[in-house]
């Protein structure tokens, strides 16, 4: 278990925490790079370049390998996997690895992270510092959100939009306002620790690709205070 020095401060209106890395997985089968990461409710999937691999996050055991190329983000819609490969996004049957459909990626090869939410795919564009919401059937761009850092992995969890960064040898995981792109919260990664793909397990963890380390890291997601009941609030001074 690795934990950076605990620190929390407000910077330009954004809450900043030291990222808490609770576990590391991999490298997998000799792969020296992680591109995209997603979670299917049970297993974590990671794109290693020539293949998609799935492992049990409880045991770390590798369970599946699909011969599907991927050099950027990975997503899961509850039934199918989506994988960025060069300038396209492939829709993949996770049982067989068969590509069922492909659409053009909005960055035409400069794409990074990928997530599924609200019936759409959300695609990061690395150096353009943007996140696009696109139609999963056609690739048409519905809207664009701008960030102020290079965008790597992208994920939605409980209505919050988070993305990874990797710029000038520094990485963090940040929550941004999905309308304005303003940074609301940041998890600072330890020095020299990159973030490539990013996904939430829908609960208390993020899974972050470690770029050229070939590892996937489980990172604690900040807990939200439970809303007070009216009765409890009435007794708060």
Mean pLDDT: 90
Q: Based on Cα principal axes, name the global outline.
A: globular
Count up the helices.
1
Helix content: under 10%
What are its keywords?
single chain; 237 residues; mainly beta; six-stranded mixed β-sheet; 23 strands; 48% strand; disordered N terminus
Question: What would your notes on this structure say?
Answer:
With 237 residues, this protein is an all-beta fold. The chain is built from one helix and 23 strands. It has one helix at residues 230-234, and strands at 2-3, 8-11, 14-18, 20-25, 37-39, 44-47, 52-55, 62-66, 74-76, 81-85, 88-92, 99-104, 111-117, 120-125, 130-134, 141-146, 151-157, 160-165, 172-176, 183-188, 198-200, 205-209, 216-220. The protein has a six-stranded mixed β-sheet, with no helix packed on it. Strands 1-4-23-22-21 form a five-stranded antiparallel β-sheet, with no helix packed on it. A hairpin with a 4-residue loop joins strand 21 (198-200) and strand 22. The protein starts with a strand and ends with a helix. Residues 1-11 and 227-237 have low confidence and may be disordered.
Which secondary structure elements does this structure contain, and how are they paired or packed?
Elements (H helix, E strand, L loop, with lengths): L1 E2 L4 E4 L2 E5 L1 E6 L11 E3 L4 E4 L4 E4 L6 E5 L7 E3 L4 E5 L2 E5 L6 E6 L6 E7 L2 E6 L4 E5 L6 E6 L4 E7 L2 E6 L6 E5 L6 E6 L9 E3 L4 E5 L6 E5 L9 H5 L3
Parallel strand pairs: 3-20
Antiparallel strand pairs: 1-4, 2-3, 4-23, 5-6, 6-7, 7-8, 9-10, 10-11, 11-12, 13-14, 14-15, 15-16, 17-18, 18-19, 19-20, 21-22, 22-23
